[in-house]
Amino acid sequence: MEGSVDHNETLDSLLHEERVFRPLPQMMIEAGVNPQDLRAARELADTDLSAYWEEAAEELDWFTKWEKVLDDSEPPDYRWFTGARCNIVYNALDRHIETVNKNRLALIWEGEPGDSRQFTYYELYRAVNRFANGLKSLGVSKGDRVVLYMPQLPETVISMLACARIGAVHSLVFSGFSARLLRERVREIHPKVVVTVDGFYRNGQVIRLKEEVDRALIDTPAEILESVVVVHRANVDVDMDSARDYWYEDLVRHERPHAPAEIMAADDPLFILHTSSTSGKSKGVIHSHGGYMVGVHRTFKWVFDLKPTDIFWCAADPGWITGHSYLVYGPLLAGTTTVMYEGHSLYPQADRMWNIISKYGVTIFYTSPTQVRTLMRFGHRYPEQHDLSTLRILGAVGEPFNPEAWIWLHKNIGKGQCPVLDTWWQTETGMIMISPMPVSVLKPGSVTRPLPGIDADIVDIEGKSVPEGKGGFLVIKKPWPAMFIGVLGDEHVIRDHYWGRFPGMFYAGDVARKDEDGYFWIQGRADDVLNISGHRIGTAEVESALTSHPHVAEAVVVGVADKIKGQVAKAFVTLNYDVVETDDELHSELKSHIHRELGPIVIIRSIEFLDELPKTSSGKIKRSALK
User: Fold this and answer.
1) What distance in Å separates the CA atoms of residue 214 and residue 472, rounded to the nearest whole number?
2) Is the pLDDT confidence value at 489 over 80?
3) Residue 169 burial by CB count (10 A; 0-12/13-18/19+): exposed, middle or buried?
4) Are 541 and 557 within 8 A, CB to CB?
5) Could you check whether the bond before residue 403 is cis, i.e. omega within 30 degrees of 0?
6) Is 392 part of a structural domain of the chain?
7) Fewest CB within a 10 Å sphere: which of 112, 163, 390, 537?
8) Which of 265, 282, 304 is the last residue before a domain boundary?
9) Cα distances (angstroms) measured from residue 608 to each of 399, 427, 472, 558, 623
10) pTM recorded for the entire structure
11) pLDDT tens-digit profile of 78-109?
């Protein structure tokens, strides 16, 4: 019958969030992009996508302008700014030192022990050029690959920019990964150089990273890897191979602080970054200079309503796409000050992040829902010990942001004065895709609407749009400039998987729903769906219901086979630190709470209380381990 909905094709939405937060009058007055501007931008993008992104590209410097903004003649092999010549580092550094930004702070870094370093744009420019020349002295040139096995240090930023400046492709490997995984990446990427550090500080411990490199490179032939560059950080003793290893400080000491930016085609590779994966083999996603630069620059400036006085802190590790786009490249392209912290957020106690915000006068704070939930466990005592009045915008990314954590951040960190911007995007998208703006009406738990130039929808298993309120698969229907240009070692995966599951649409792998206002609600990954008596329910909704209980800090739900229901839910929960009730009391109380919040559809078979949930190296909950 027309209009009927098959439960096998859509998700049931059980949560109904009715709280609404409107922008404060002062935010509306001071916004760089007001509602009228936003409406005009959407209309332009809807009627002429190329014109919208060409306008964004004109804000940056190009050695040669494009022949065509978007070549869509062979979808899904979309090519942006064809014929253009550019270099992302020229835009992140060179153009700023010709302006009043020359002596502005580009980077504020704090180490876990409390030491700190700061770089102006001119100082960072000179440091990048010196290392660019150092890499050249090791034989690195345009098109070569360099693996960076680095923690959150200034030299990590310098290394990324130095590679890109001379046209080399950087691939950052998260410093928490093991020697075995580094070995796999080196064998896959074939870098000419690996850049690492003697050791670094994490949760009061020294992590000896050079030792991991040595283990990873046992029996690695010289034709795969020629040199290893080691940064002094923790000043621990390390073995140095005189034929292969170089100290970073020795390499750059006598290099000139000037190196020309390599002229790159817009679609030349910039970096390879592997997606995090809780199961299966991760993919090496490739991004390019031109389109990535345009998309990240536009979204950074617009979403965060950038002001000349801003101090921006993205708390992500540079080993992940959030760190690439909104810790390093986005802030530097926009000419703002970016903050980087080396260590653990709970060291030496649970107020470290609030202390950093207060100390440096951070105005925009971008973090993850997991980080917020972790800090929530300690209550409001720690935030109240610090002056957080400089904050004006809060943001989150990485996974569904449950409403109660959103409310906690808004109330205890933003003091009710800061919009909380829940953003959706991925390693593959390169840039923020769906997000509120500071002038948007906010609903806790919703990423609101797609940004101008992004055509997103929710579809069923046949690729047809689902009715409002019903869940389905999140897709993007038109190309965007920061989209990835390939996957390392798999030339068919873009066509067959990403654009092949729903022909003509990019399949994001997430399930979501859209409400009556056109707001998007992310319900989890497509494989994180419960099927209880024919009702398909996103795990994120059940987890949000659990975390709305005042005793619960974090929760994850997985499906368990049931002979009658098909599936039922098992929950894993961490509690706030002040909880005194017994497990049996809480077990009964939380089951009743779920029944009240979601109704009798959701059957919770059992609840297991843990001190800590297992997480991937990027901070996401490791569902596969719990399953």
Assistant:
1) 47
2) yes
3) buried
4) no
5) no
6) no
7) 390
8) 265
9) 22, 32, 29, 12, 14
10) 0.88
11) 999 999 999 999 999 999 999 999 999 999 99
